[in-house]
Amino acid sequence: MIAQADAVEDRAQGARGRSRGGPMAAALVGLVVALSGCTVAQGASSPAAPGRSVTQAAAEPSATPAAGTPTVRAPALPAPGKAIPKAPAELARALTGTAAQLRRAIDDWRRAGGTATGRVPDSVVLPALYQQRLYRHLARNSEVASRTYAALPKALAGPAKADVTAIRKLLSLAHPVSDPAKFRVEKPEPADVLIGHFRRAERRFGVDWEVLAAVMFVETKFGRVRSPSHTGAKGPMQFMPRTWEAYGMGGDVHDTRDAILAAANYLHASGAPRDYRRALYAYNHSWAYVDAVLLHARQIKRDVRNYYAYYNWQVFVITTRGERRLTGP
User: Fold this and answer.
1) d(CA 16, CA 47)
2) pTM recorded for the entire structure
């Protein structure tokens, strides 16, 4: 996807609880973000500020080219507040260039081993944020989105539409909050460490790791959101106390590994992998939620780089005074 999907369209904390004691999604923290992003470059990340997520160092400069060799400069990284184009043709160009930039960055990030350490370079973080913001804009402007898809290369149009659709569905569930300061956020575990948790749960319960990843992405942006919901749902996979007692297997609801195993246990008991729609509806009684999770999961299955892109989507909160970003550069 690399074209994503905001995620996550994230869900703002405090939107609404799940009925029948099911886990509760983080209330569309401004669709705490999602859509896909892409790749990384080398460089150690700088220490994260309290309550903020990663910020990364720039990639190392390349070797000096031989005399007579033309210098090819990489595209400049987008600033965190880079303007969003208005015209569909300009939006399509921005999405195409950002997707290519992300793809290269994610490949570099993975080759450098940063996905296992939690160090994410600006070459990944900044394009992922811009892509997320582009998708969120399209999710709120359906007519412009349709014209933008038509201007995109065929290989990008489908993934872009899937991510924007997922974000739009999650935004439809969001409820504005009055005090975003109540949201506690922190840096997530490294991307490859999370994959290890997802795959372990898949082996034990037969639930596709991509589906588990998509659920965590939508619920808490891979564990960035650590505040309980207004109904009492807790942890990186957002469980209500009674549901955790039944499916938590004696673990800690705030422990990432335990929470992912419990989510797989719950989804399996609710029909997965035989019927993912039924299982996800049990997890959160909303068909819009079900559709969004499955769209993101399919994007990850199509290209694992989409997982790494989603991992770098930031947390947005929809407030009574407008949208506010809580994490990122």
Assistant:
1) 34
2) 0.81
